[in-house]
Specification:
Elements: E1 8-15, H1 25-42, E2 46-53, E3 56-63, H2 69-86, E4 101-105, H3 110-118, H4 120-124, H5 129-135
Antiparallel strand pairs: 1-3, 1-4, 2-3
Helix pairs in contact: 1-2
């Protein structure tokens, strides 16, 4: 085989520092999601879908054979926090919580995970992040 074929999909969740509720739906839609997509595009990171809630982000990422999950997440979190702070989107220094939660996704479950992430704001409005991750 002369070419690599890689179907590694990962559902990743990360939180704001101390899980502080900082994001409104409007802020996520108009600021955070476009920023993460821009960072992904500039760094050759394939994002299937991105969404979030008041204090966390869900992202479905497809890894290329030359990429590491930790490298991609470091890029998304690091660059986004730098841009948020440079643009003073908050009147304090923003940062993400250290670490992330990651689950591998079988190629035949991509569509259902896409749907789950797209609808996560509606589904989890009455759940804690721990409950959400446990139920997923």
């Amino acid at each position: 085989m002369s070419h690599n074929h890689c179907q590694i999909w990962v559902h990743v969740v990360w939180t704001t520092k101390d899980r502080e509720n900082l994001f409104t739906t409007d802020f996520l839609y108009h600021k955070i999601k476009p920023l993460l997509r821009k960072i992904a595009l500039e760094n050759d990171i394939q994002i299937g879908v991105v969404n979030g809630y008041k204090n966390h982000i869900h992202c479905l990422i497809r890894l290329k054979s030359t990429q590491s999950l930790s490298g991609n997440i470091q890029k998304l979190k690091g660059v986004s926090s730098r841009v948020i702070n440079e643009n003073k989107w908050f009147d304090f220094e923003f940062s993400w919580q250290i670490g992330y939660h990651a689950l591998s996704v079988s190629p035949n479950r991509i569509q259902s995970v896409n749907n789950y992430i797209k609808k996560s704001v509606e589904k989890i409005s009455n759940m804690s992040l721990d409950e959400e991750l446990r139920d997923f």
